[in-house]
Structures are given as structure tokens and as C-alpha cells.
Design goal:
With 412 residues, this protein is mainly α. It has one domain: Growth Hormone, Chain: A. It is built from 16 helices and no strands. It starts with 17 loop residues before the first helix and ends in a 20-residue tail after the last helix.
């Protein structure tokens, strides 16, 4: 099989294999998520250390996504110009620096600064990994994007599983430091991408020949805003809800979050595979929104404790699992040579939802002194997202072969 070079031409032996690109992208997303969800996972410790209220925990958690919203679009433009490797290494270094500031924070405001820096680096991980995947594996792009995005729930799973134990055994500062060390370790593995410029920016197989209607990006941006708002409310408050509202120990609540994010790995692969079926690009996202609505509505009810586990798993599979198929839609509809910019721009709306929604829902939960309104509102976000996509996303473009070289298959 003829290999595809970093500039879309056949032949250079130094070009990394497609599965290497996928593995590096997966690990990078995992490291970013491992650090990004640490605020929510360590929320009980931070409340005690800094006297944060429930609303303030939501605000600190939202700084991750505020930083990501600020950085995502510039990172997309930069990736289209410079290629994935440079941007990805800078992003992982930024995560490590932000985690180091969090670990050493003497005051709450210093923790917030570190969290904002970490969030900007988190947002910069997406565009280079999106472009690397889109340029190398155009066939079945929804599934491959979902495999790559599975790094997010895997990282969240490991955070929920490990960080509470590290905090209990050593301290929450060591838990934050661990997230930074993981980012450094992953950055050390990105060398193969150095030999790969962006195929997409050079006119390879990713993207379409003409720009889509403007309402495509409006519909996708609105969907991403609402679903991400619900997703980050779930990630930010599940541990605290189970700990304070349902009597779970901190460790047990962390395991519940880990289980939910583990199920979301399967959810991502399912939505990605489904999105590659003819006519199912948008339908897969709408189905995920429906299941997320059901899961959050059930959390709003006073369920028996044993039932909370499978409900949290269902909610995680849908409310965290949609993102890979979503990126597949973006890459599929973007004009050729603009996948980085398109994904960065739409992901700005995604991160904006994650910034705006969790603090608002946390405030409502605090002033009512009840958890049910938070989960009911989260269900409403998912339901509205699915409805908007159904009503306003333009029809799916016809499938068919596109000009350009065929990308290297994942397996030899």
C-alpha cells in the first residue's frame, strides 16, 4: 500500500503510520481530559482547602472551558498554517504548566489562574488532533474521530479512579501534579508527528470543495453549546451530588464518575460507527441527545441508590459520548483546507456552553438547596440541542468519492 506523506504526496518513508497518528491523538486527548476534569473530581478537597461554595466550584471548573473557548479558534488557524505537531506540543506543555500552578497554589485566586492557563492549553489540543485524523483517515471519519475523542472519557475515567485516592494518600496538590506529569509524558511521545505537515492544509482528502451554508455552523454551534453545557454540568457536579446529596463516600462518588466515563467510551465508538452509516451523520447526534435527556431526567428523580449507577452510566454514554461523531460532521462539511479553522470555530461555541452553563445550574441548585433542578435543566439542554439540530441543520451532502489521494488504512 502506497503511503501518504505529510503534504499529501506519496512516498516518504519517514511519514508516521496512520495508527501512530491515531494513538498519539488519543493519548493527547486523554492527558488533556485527565487534567481538565480534576477540579470536579477534587471538588470536596478544594471546598475544604479554599472554602469554595458549590457555585464557586462550578465557576472554577468553568475556567477550564473558558480558557478552551479563548484558545480553540486561534489554535485552529495556527494548526492550518503550521501543522499539528508544533501546536500539540505547545498545548501539552501548557497543560503541564497550568497543573503545576494548581498544585502549588497558596490561594484560591492562584488556583484559578492555573486553571485558566490549563484550559487554554486544553482547547489547543483539539484542532491539531482533528486535522491529523481528518487528513490521514478520511474513510470512516466519524468512527476515527470517535476513537480519538475516546481519550476524553478515558482520561476522565482515570481521573475519577485515581485522583481521589492520590489526594487521600498524599494530598490534592500531588493529585494536580500528577496530571501535569502525565501531560509531559504524552508530549514526549509526539515526535512522529514532527515529520507530518497537515495533509488537510495542503489540499489532501479532508473537507469538501466548497464552503457549506452559514446555517450549518450556526446549527452545529448551537447543538455543541447546549450539549457541552450539559456534559460539563454532569462532569462538574456528579461527584459532589453523589457525595452530598446521596451519601456516597468521596471515593465511591469518584468511581461512579469513572464508570460513567468508561461507558462513554463505548458510547463514542457507537455514535461514531453509526454516524458513518449513510444518512446518519446528524441522526446519530440527535439519538445521543435523546438518551442524554432521558438519563438526566432520571437523575432528577429520587432514584434508589442502586439504580443511580446504571443511570449515570447511560447518561455518560450519551452526554459525554457525542463529541467524536460531532467532529466527524464538522470535518465532513468543512471546505478543503479549513478543517482546523472550522473545528476550532465550532468548538469555541462548545467550550462557551461549558463555561456558561455549569455555574448557572450550580447557582440554581444552591439557592434552591436541591439537586433536582440542576438535573432537570441539564435534561432540557440535551432535549433542546437535539430539536435545534433536527430543525435547522441543512440536509446532509451526498456521499461519494472525492478527489485526492486515499489515506493510509489503519491496519496494513
Amino acid at each position: 500500500m502506497q503511503r501518504v506523506s505529510g503534504r499529501g504526496r506519496p512516498g516518504r518513508a519517514g511519514t508516521p503510520r496512520a495508527r501512530t497518528v491515531l494513538s498519539i491523538s488519543l493519548a493527547s486527548l486523554g492527558a488533556a481530559a485527565f487534567a481538565g476534569v480534576a477540579i470536579g473530581v477534587l471538588a470536596p478537597d478544594l471546598k475544604e482547602a479554599f472554602g469554595f461554595s458549590r457555585t464557586e466550584i462550578g465557576m472554577v471548573s468553568a475556567l477550564v472551558t473558558l480558557g478552551a473557548a479563548l484558545a480553540s479558534r486561534p489554535a485552529g488557524r495556527l494548526t492550518d498554517r503550521l501543522g499539528p505537531w508544533r501546536v500539540l506540543v505547545l498545548a501539552l506543555a501548557g497543560i503541564a504548566a497550568g497543573a503545576a500552578i494548581q498544585a502549588g497554589a497558596p490561594r484560591g485566586w492562584v488556583l484559578m489562574l492555573g486553571t485558566l492557563l490549563l484550559g487554554m492549553a486544553y482547547g489547543a489540543v483539539g484542532p491539531p488532533t482533528n486535522v491529523a485524523i481528518a487528513g490521514r483517515m478520511q474513510g470512516g471519519i466519524g468512527f476515527f474521530m470517535s476513537v480519538k475523542q475516546a481519550g476524553m472519557p478515558i482520561g476522565s475515567f482515570l481521573a475519577g479512579l485515581l485522583l481521589p485516592s492520590v489526594a487521600g494518600w498524599l494530598s490534592w496538590r500531588w493529585a494536580f501534579l500528577l496530571t501535569g506529569l502525565v501531560a509531559v509524558a504524552v508530549a514526549a511521545t509526539t515526535g512522529p508527528l514532527r515529520r507530518t505537515a497537515t495533509i488537510d492544509a495542503a489540499g489532501g482528502t479532508a473537507g469538501r470543495d466548497s464552503a457549506p451554508p452559514r446555517r450549518t455552523w450556526i446549527a452545529l454551534g448551537a447543538f455543541g453549546f447546549l450539549m457541552a453545557g450539559g456534559q460539563w454540568s454532569f462532569l462538574s457536579y456528579l461527584v459532589l451530588y453523589l457525595n452530598e446529596g446521596r451519601g456516597f463516600s468521596h471515593a465511591a462518588a469518584g468511581i461512579a464518575l469513572a464508570a460513567a466515563t468508561a461507558c462513554s467510551v463505548a458510547g463514542r465508538l457507537l455514535w461514531g460507527w453509526l454516524s458513518d452509516r449513510p444518512g446518519w451523520r446528524a441522526r446519530s447526534l440527535m439519538l445521543a441527545a435523546v438518551l442524554a435527556t432521558i438519563g438526566c431526567a432520571l437523575l432528577a428523580a429520587d432514584l434508589p441508590v442502586p439504580v443511580v449507577w446504571p443511570v449515570a452510566a447511560l447518561t455518560g454514554a450519551a452526554l459525554i459520548g457525542w463529541n467524536g461523531a460531532f467532529l466527524g460532521v464538522i470535518a465532513d462539511r468543512a471546505a478543503r483546507g479549513t478543517v482546523g479553522h472550522a473545528s476550532g470555530t465550532v468548538m469555541t461555541m462548545v467550550f462557551a456552553g461549558a463555561v456558561a452553563v455549569p455555574p448557572l445550574f450550580g447557582y440554581i441548585s444552591q439557592v434552591t438547596d436541591r439537586w433536582e433542578p440542576l438535573w432537570a435543566l441539564t435534561a432540557g439542554c440535551a432535549a433542546t440541542a437535539g430539536l435545534l439540530l433536527k430543525l435547522f441543520l441543512p440536509p446532509e451532502p451526498p456521499a461519494g468519492p472525492r478527489p485526492g489521494l486515499q489515506p493510509e488504512p489503519l491496519l496494513p
